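[job 4471] stage=fold_predict status=RUNNING
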Amino acid sequence: MKVLRTPIGDADIEGLTAGDVVFLDGTLVTCRDVGHRRLIELGMELPVDLRGGAILHAGPIVAERGDRFEMISIGPTTSMRMEKFEQEFIARTGVKLVVGKGGMGPGTVEGCRLHKAVHAIFPGGCAVVAARQVEEIERVEWRDLGMPEALWVSRVSGFGPLIISIDAKGNNLVDSNKALFDARKAALVDEIGRQVRFIR
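[job 4471] inference complete, writing structure tokens
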């Protein structure tokens, strides 16, 4: 079992290939649409040092229990929404692991290749399982954005499984799978067409 521990170094990233399954120990920060926009479009500095760190595209559900927070649910959100920001986000923050739902595009591929980072997919439908892997919410930043968009800084253990979808070599698992599935689909569509042509 491959485990990444923050701070994540270049050597940790270089040893990963698209399709690998890893788990995360250490610090994980939720950062989605508005967090990316504040840094890239508005020029605001992030209140969290992400060098060697990990972010999760997610809008968690958090309960306030007196002087502490409890993670109730932390399902990933669609990463592609952050595609237009991610290459510059990686370059400016030094983040090494970007986690979300679904794949990302060529900008993120280039950002990962140039700056030795990876994108990983957390399986959908496992938000409550993911919350159980959060040992403690250490703090929250930009709470003015509301619960989903705030930056929740958590300590996690065995967070995953995370499927590496973009590696630092420029491989994109989702794109290569799409090409493979499209190639298989053509033959299947022809076969189905032959079997049901009588209904035309």
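[job 4471] summary: Residues 2-173 form a domain with the fumarase fold (CATH 3.20.130.10).
[job 4471] exit 0
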